[in-house]
Amino acid sequence: MPQPSYKAWLEISRPLNVVLGGITCYLGGYFAGIDDSAYLTLTLSTCSVMFFMAAGNIVNDIMDSTIDAQAHPSRAIPSGRIDRSLAKGVAGGLWIVSLLLMGLSTNLLRGTVDLRWGVIIIWSIAAILMLSYDLGPRTKQRGLIGNIAISLMVGMVILFGAASVGRLYLPLIWMVAATSFFINLAREIIKDCEDLESDSETRNTLPMSVGKEKARMIAYSISMGGIVCAALPYYLGYFHLGFLLFQLPAILLVLTCNGKMMAGDDKSCQQQLRKGLIMGLLGFTASVGFS
Question: What pTM, to 2 d.p., does this model score?
C-alpha cells in the first residue's frame, strides 16, 4: 500500500484550525499576563493544545469515514489515501505527545504557582469531552449536547493558556472564555441548520427538533450572550471604557448575523460568526496591549 502523502495528513489534521487553537491558547496566557518565567510553560501548553486538536480532528474523520464514503468519498480515509488503522495509531501518538507536553508544563509550574493543577484538570476535562464526542457516548450525534461540548472546549483553550501562567483565577479570563463559548455555540447551531439534510440519518440536532427558524432564533439569542461577555470587562473596569471600540468589529459582525439568519443563509452566517469570534479575540488582544 502506498504511503499517504503529506497533503493527505494536512487535510485530515486541519492545520488552520490547529494553528488557530494554538494562537488562542497563547492569547489566554497573554490576557492573563506573562512574565519571563512563564514563556516556556505557555509554549509547551500551546504545543499541547495543537497536538490535542490534531488528534481530535483525525479521530473525527475516522469515526465519520463510513458516512463519508457516501457523502464525501474524496476525503483522505474514504478515498484510501490514509489507512484507517494507521490514522488510529497517529491519533493515539499525537494524544500521548499532547499529554507529555502538558505534564512538562505542569512540572515547570511546580513551586512557582499554587494553581498548577488547573492545567491538569482542564486538559483532563477537555480529553473527556473530546472522547465522549466522537467515541462514546458520541455526543456528536446528540445535537445540542455535542454543540455545547465543542464550545466548552473552545472556551477551555483560553483557560488552559491562563492556567499555564498560573493565573486561572482572574475574572477577565473567564469572561473571555465565556465570549468564545457563546459565539461558538451559536455558530455550531447554525452549522447544524446548514447541514440539516445531510445529518438527518446520523444525528439528532436542534434544528431537527424545533425547526430551522426557531434554532436560528436560539442561536442569535446565544450569540448576544457572547456580545455581553465581550463588553463586560470594559464596563467593569478591566479595560478603559474607550477601548470598547476595539470590540466594535466583533460586535457588528455578530449583531448583523440576524439578517442572514432570517434569509436562511446559514453558510455565510456561520462563517461570519467565526470571523466575529476571531475579531473579538483580536479586540481583547489590542485592549491588553494598550492597557
Answer: 0.92
The closest alpha carbon to 173, from 160, 183, 187, 154, belongs to 160
Range of the domain at 60: 1-167
Q: Give the number of domains in the chain.
A: 2
Grid cell digits, residue 258:
440576524
pLDDT in tens, the chain (291 residues): 556 677 888 889 999 999 999 999 999 999 998 877 788 999 999 999 999 999 999 998 888 777 766 666 777 888 888 888 898 999 999 999 999 999 999 888 876 655 668 899 999 999 999 989 877 788 888 889 999 999 999 999 999 999 999 889 999 999 999 999 999 999 999 999 998 877 677 778 899 999 999 999 999 999 999 999 999 999 999 999 999 999 999 999 999 999 999 899 999 999 999 999 999 999 999 999 998
Grid coordinates representing 42 are 505557555
Last residue of a domain, one of 167, 200, 227: 167
**Contact yes or no for 103/51 (Cβ under 8 A):** no
